[in-house]
Amino acid sequence: MKNFLANKPLGFRVTLVATALSLVTALAYLVIYSSSRYMSWQAFGIMIAGVVLTVALIALKQERFAPSALLVGDFLSLLFYGYYIYFYVSSVVTGIQFSGFPLEFFVNIVLYAASLVLSIACVFMRQTVEE
What we know:
- Helix content is about 75%, strand content about 0%.
- It is mostly helical.
- The protein has one domain (about 10-125).
- It is elongated.
C-alpha cells in the first residue's frame, strides 16, 4: 500500500477517500431504505457503478478521469434519490405526516452531501504527478 501511494499527489489520495465515502453512502442508503417504498434502486446502482468505474480507472492508470466518473455517479444518484424521496419530504413539510424526519433521513442526506462535495473538490485537484 505504501508503494501504491508513493509519489501520488494529495488529489489522488482525496479521490480514494471520496470513493470510499461514496461506497459507504451507497451502503447506508441500501440499509436505510431497502425495505421501504422510497428506495431507488437506480440511485443505488448508479452510485455503485460510479465507484466501480472509478476503481477501474485507477487500476488502469487513468487517475485523471477517476474523479469525473465518481462525480457523475454521485450526482446522478442524488437526482434519483431526490426523485424517489420527494413525496415523503413534501408530506412531512406540508404537515400531512406528523412524524417528522427520522435520524436516518438526516444521516443519508449528510452522507450524500459530503460525498458530492468531496467528489466536486476532487475534480479540481491534481491527480497525477507532473512530469
